[in-house]
Specification:
The chain is of the alpha/beta class. The chain is 44% helix and 12% strand. It binds flavin mononucleotide.
Length: 385
Amino acid sequence: MTFGSYQSEIYLQGLAEQTPVFTTDGAALEDAARERLGPGPYGYVAGGAGAESTVRANRDAFERWRIVPRMLTDATKRDHTTTVLGTTMPAPVLFAPVGVQSIVHEDGELATARAAAELGLTMILSNASSHTIEDVAESNGDGSRWFQLYWPNENDVTISILARAKAAGYTTLVVTLDTWTLAWRTRDLDQAYLPFIRGVGTAIPFSDPAFRAGLEKSPEEDLTSAVLRWIPMFTGTDKRWDQLPFLREHWDGPIVLKGIQHTDDARRACDAGMDGIVVSNHGGRQVDGAIASLEVLPEIVAAVGGRTEILFDSGIRTGADILKALALGARAVLIGRPYVYGLALAGQDGVRHAMRSLLADFDLTLGLSGHRTPADLTPDTLRRT
Ligand SMILES: Cc1cc2nc3c(=O)[nH]c(=O)nc-3n(C[C@H](O)[C@H](O)[C@H](O)COP(=O)(O)O)c2cc1C
């Protein structure tokens, strides 16, 4: 089965008077999720930092690059298989780490883990998950999973969380650098909405023996004390480049740094022996007024391409967007908000639909523009307008 076959599946169901339960249009999926969600959860997912100028910039950057289609290239059969840091995937597409998924659907990360396994795609579990590392691994079964760390401010807790992730079958560590404290997020502030201080999105530390060892009473008995330990553990303290060897010491698989936007930082990541980077501005959620993530991708590829694996996220909403990021040099892309909107609408079914729609769109766009594999894409595939 090809990804594009989702198209024929949908049209054939039309013969039985069935239309898709959810829209196939990524932007409209967000509108549908808005109607389903309360203002707190919707604002948390859709919102960005400050005036949300970075959220807009991310989208605008994709518009500036246009695909130049090629004809008669025998693009009938397409193969998207890609290997990233030893993980083979059926398409160069991963589930971005997204925290607190239970605010949009009670199954949260468990549903995402099941959908990812069904599709054969790699899920990156957020450190701010609403389910434990072990429970998500169980839902993911034989699926492929990576783990994203928000680097705790106590070494014992970091070591313990990394050991748990390794034991539960997460193969690559993604360390997110851009969210050592929360940005000024006006939608959340106006509603005084922060799930973590209610003990939502804290399942990983709250179930962690090293975290619990620092509490007089368990989080189940005394939520407030657990939250008060969580706050300085995960917010307020930035790290330094010279601390990276500590992670290497306690993680024997590949390490990827997420949140890179400057060529010098990309070079430093390589110099520090990091296996990969994610060129990302966290979907515009951290630095308002920041440069679009896609805008910096070509210069980072020019600076460190070949020295480290380069992944990309921030602003991908369509198959064409995936194609553009790959053409500009990303090995693979992370999908964020779109699958969360799918999750909000229908749990596992919604996640599957959102991802299958994106993958079908990508597959068809790749073929119709004259390419058979992601490796065929180069900057010459695009023109900047
Ligand atoms: C609701 C929400 C929660 C997120 N939580 C995390 C997280 O826990 N860890 C992380 O590294 N990134 C997190 N991100 C950022 C995503 O991994 C990704 O960088 C971002 O969604 C990409 O932007 P896009 O959704 O506009 O494509 C979150 C994003 C959203 C929308």
